[in-house]
Amino acid sequence: HSHSAPSWPPPLSWPQAFNQEKVEEVNAQTPTQKQKVVIYLPALAACLPFVSTDATRAYLQAIFIHVKDEATAYVATDGHRLCLAQPNKWRVLGVEEIFAPIAKEHDGIILSAEDAKELVRWDAKKADVEAQHYATMEIPGKSTVEFKSWDGKLQRICKVMDATYPDYA
User: Fold this and answer.
1) Beta carbons of 59 and 163 less than 8 angstroms apart
2) What global pTM score does this model have?
3) Other C-beta atoms lying within 10 Å of the C-beta of residue 61
């Protein structure tokens, strides 16, 4: 038995096709609200000793900050040892209301060790204020990201390394 072959591509009337294009164009121009990632500074600090000193692999002279399933992973490796710091979700929970909106997923950024060291200095070790352990990272930024201390008084714009971090999982 023969069935009639469906016509391909499916017919699309001109006005409809034209409108679709228009809609996409408008969407592309709407500025997206900046999302933030809460950065837990002690986790960043924990990774620093594992950063590579090999200048030929600049992307390893850095810390990879990766957001997945609403949890943030901080990764550093020198090619022999690897540090993966994943603070408990509850560490960030109460903080989200202050900083929202929070990105649920983000491909991650590679942050130079130099920048990471600078940010870690913001963490007041003997602070009674738990919030001082946190900073925010604003995305999107194709080549730069902006970090702010919990109270917004300190800010640092960092260049993002244009490289692919090795799969750490």
Assistant:
1) yes
2) 0.71
3) 19
